[in-house]
Write a structure and sequence with these properties.
The complex is a heterodimer.
Chain A: E1 3-14, E2 17-28, E3 32-36, H1 43-50, E4 58-63, H2 73-76, E5 79-82, H3 94-102, H4 111-117, H5 133-145, E6 151-155, H6 163-178, E7 182-187, H7 190-196, E8 199-204, E9 207-212, H8 214-219, E10 224-230, E11 233-239, H9 242-255, E12 261-266, H10 270-279
Parallel strand pairs in A: 3-7, 3-8, 5-6, 6-7
Antiparallel strand pairs in A: 1-2, 1-4, 8-9, 10-11, 10-12
Chain B: H1 2-16, H2 19-40, E1 44-45, E2 48-49, H3 50-80, H4 83-88, H5 94-123, H6 132-154, H7 163-177, H8 189-197, H9 199-213, H10 221-241
Antiparallel strand pairs in B: 1-2
The chains are: A alpha/beta, B mainly alpha.
């Protein structure tokens, strides 16, 4: 079986408000899959249904071949969960809490190894309450990895991080992929999704607005854009043949001795796709 | 069983590092015994030495506070902080977890009870409790029943702040009403009637009958029945309504 996660026609409403409506996607084993979307798009609801925390209203869900709504301890041996928020036993040290959680699993990863993966080597004997916010998040990740899971859920793993901490977290997530883990992460940061995910689904109002590789998603947009200023006015040209258009444009300008001010050639970024998907026709 | 012992060890470590819990379940009964013991430990209460009467009440109060309040406060706090939610994602079974949390507080209480009896015998000329086998059986019954009620009560508390105040507000007045610290003989009827509804009075009476009068547990079927009924009701409520995740809003 090469599917780690399979979701079909998933629906969930809270008090009549539809949080998730008809979401379907599949995640292959070993893939890093991202759920991208603004706050309130249904990311956390979707992930928490897959983690077994929430009941769904309709749809078929299989995680590692099991329905999370009825899954038991055997299934939990195989998943790792990093929640969006939540605190830990503040009075235990990093090593103590990792050993405690490691003991819950039949087959657990060595505590020192986990500490190295999440980069807390210097902090092993420190109590949890003395750690910084970013260090606590890394410990959170360590707790999700200590059971040596096949599938790891990361709900907004870098929200609130400074750029340096975010880059470290990205390196860690990449190293998880190298370990062969399947990863489902949610994020509202585009650059994060673009850099980390093999494939991603853009969620908007509880629906999938787009699904594919980051490159495929940008390919769906209008072609290359050329901008410049002429007589103080901005000119924008969209073209599928940027080389020819640019050549003609600059040749013309040279002939007439004009400088094309603020000349810019750009390919649409994932951000453009994202904005066009999440902003158009909100329901 | 391996998981239970693993969790129990961790919980004992957490217990020794938690000042609030240690104070309420361990030091407070000892403090009460010393203060009240010097106040009227040498008087006669309901035909018994004041110190013995107090020890009996304190052991009953101790079990209730440990199993009911201690467990409920820990569980509400950990639920609202998201720790229970975190644990839910691991293979640790709920029953094993709750048993280990309860076991920890009961171990702490046991140590506390030994201190109480020892203090009473050395400082207040108290006596060793009578019918120790029945006493242990009664304490186990009470521990299980009050734990069930405690977990049941957690399903009505939605925030970590105030949970410990709400729980103390239930059981400290009830402890006085139920005769844990003084005889009910001088209470007006409406107060004793109020106490009659709740299980703590029956438990205090049961412990007193066993440790002071030397009764055996099977000679007090009404007490046992009321305590067990409350315990079953609390456990049923807990099983129906128990939540792993923090309350929303």
């Amino acid at each position: 079986m090469s599917r780690a996660v399979s979701v079909q026609g998933l629906r969930k409403a809270y008090d009549g408000v539809k949080a998730v409506r008809d979401v379907s996607f599949e995640i292959e084993v070993g893939e890093v899959f991202g759920l991208l979307g603004p706050n309130g798009a249904g990311k956390t609801t979707t992930v928490e249904i897959l983690e077994g925390y929430r009941a769904r209203d309709a749809g078929r869900v299989e995680v590692l071949g099991v329905d999370p709504a009825t899954a038991g301890g055997d299934w939990r041996e195989r998943i790792g969960v990093v929640l969006q928020s939540g605190s830990l036993y503040a009075q235990l040290s990093v090593i103590e809490i990792l050993s405690l959680f490691g003991g819950y699993y039949e087959r657990s990863r060595d505590v020192d190894e986990v500490i190295a993966i999440v980069g807390l080597e210097e902090k092993g004997r420190q109590r949890v309450h003395t750690l910084s916010g970013g260090q606590k998040r890394r410990l959170d990740l360590g707790l999700a990895l200590v059971g040596d899971p096949e599938l790891v859920f990361l709900d907004e793993p870098t929200t609130g991080f400074d750029p340096e901490a975010r880059r470290r977290a990205w390196d860690t997530i990449r190293s998880l992929r190298d370990l062969g883990k399947t990863i489902l992460l949610t994020t509202h940061y585009l650059d994060e999704a673009e850099r980390l995910c093999d494939r991603l689904a853009v969620l908007r109002n509880g629906e999938i607005a787009a699904l594919g590789r980051p490159g495929e998603l940008t390919g769906a947009l209008p072609p290359t854009e050329i901008r410049y200023r002429l007589n103080g006015e901005e000119v924008v040209v969209h073209t599928e043949e940027p080389t020819r258009v640019l050549n003609e444009l600059t040749a013309e300008a040279l002939r007439n001795g004009i400088e094309l001010e603020a000349l810019e050639v750009r390919r649409p970024s994932l951000e453009d796709v994202y904005l066009s998907l999440t902003q158009e026709s909100p329901q | 069983m391996r998981l239970f012992l693993h969790e129990l060890r961790a919980e004992l470590l957490l217990y020794t590092r938690s000042r609030e819990l240690a104070f309420f379940t361990f030091l407070l009964p000892i403090l009460f015994l010393i203060i009240l013991g010097y106040a009227y430990g040498d008087e006669e209460i309901e035909g018994h030495l004041g110190a013995d009467y107090l020890v009996s009440g304190m052991i009953g109060y101790g079990v209730a506070s440990t199993a009911f309040a201690g467990l409920a406060i820990v569980l509400v706090y950990r639920r609202e902080e998201g720790i229970l939610k975190r644990l839910r994602a691991t293979p640790l079974p709920a029953v094993t977890y709750i048993a280990a949390v309860l076991g920890t507080t009961l171990i702490a209480f046991l140590v506390g009870a030994i201190c109480i009896v020892a203090l009473s015998m050395t400082l207040l000329d108290g006596h060793f409790p009578k019918s120790p086998v029945s006493l242990v059986a009664a304490l186990l019954l009470g521990g299980a029943a009050f734990a069930g009620i405690g977990v049941g009560v957690t399903t009505f508390l939605h925030r970590a702040e105030g949970a410990s105040a709400a729980i103390n507000a239930i059981y400290i007045p009830l402890s006085f009403l139920s005769g844990a610290f003084c005889s009910q003989a001088n209470f007006p009827t409406f107060l004793t009637v109020a106490a009659d509804v709740f299980p703590l009075k029956y438990f205090i009476d049961l412990v007193a009958a066993i440790s002071l009068d030397g009764d055996q547990i099977w000679e007090r079927p009404l007490d046992v029945a009321v305590i067990a009924a409350w315990g079953i009701a609390g456990t049923a409520l807990a099983l129906r309504r128990f939540r792993w995740v923090p309350g929303e809003g």
